Amino acid sequence: MMQVRVVQSGATPAESPSVRRQSVIKDLAGLEEAAATVRASLAQLEDRVSLARRHLESGGPAGDLQRVAHVMEERAAVNAALAEMQQARHRSQRSLFLLAVDEGFSLAEIARTWGISRQLVSRMTKEEPGQGAPA
C-alpha cells in the first residue's frame, strides 16, 4: 500500500524490484569508490602536513610552506572528496529507502531502522533523482 502512494506521488517511476536492487548496488559501489577517494585524499593531506611540520621544525620560514608542502591544494582536494562522498551517501540512502518501500516497509519502519524522521524518509523518497544532498 505504501508503495502505491510513493509511485502515485509522481516522485519516482515504478521500477521492477530487480532494477531497483541493481540501482542500490550501483549506488553503494559509488559510495565505496567515494570513500576510497576520501581515504586517499586524507592520506595525501597527512603527508603534506607532515612535510610542513618538518619544514617548520628544521627552521624553515612559514612563508615557504605553500611552496614546500602545497597544503592548501590538498585541503581543497579533501573538501571536494568529502562533498562527493556526501552526495554518494545520499544517493545510496535514497535508493535503499526506495527499495525498502518496494519490499513493503512503511516509511515509519524505514525511519526507525535508520534513526531518522519519517518526514525525512518521505522527502527523500519523493525527490527527483539527482536532487537532494547539497554539494
Q: What does it look like?
A:
With 135 residues, the chain is mainly α. It contains six helices and no strands. The radius of gyration is 21 Å and the shape is elongated. The N terminus is likely disordered.
Question: What's the arrangement of secondary structure elements?
Answer:
Elements: H1 2-8, H2 17-57, H3 65-69, H4 71-102, H5 107-114, H6 118-126
Helix pairs in contact: 2-4, 5-6
Question: Can you give me a brief rundown of this structure?
Answer:
The chain is mainly alpha-helical. It is built from 6 helices and no strands.
- Helix-strand pattern: HHHHHH
What is the helix tally?
6
Could you tell me the strand content as a percent range? under 5%
Shape, per Cα inertia axes: elongated
Class by helix and strand content?
mainly alpha
> What is the β-strand count?
0
Distance between the termini: 34 Å
The helix content, as a percent range, equals over 70%
CA-based gyration radius: 21 Å
**Main beta-sheet strand count, sense and barrel state:** none
**Parts with pLDDT < 50 across at least 5 consecutive residues:** 1-12
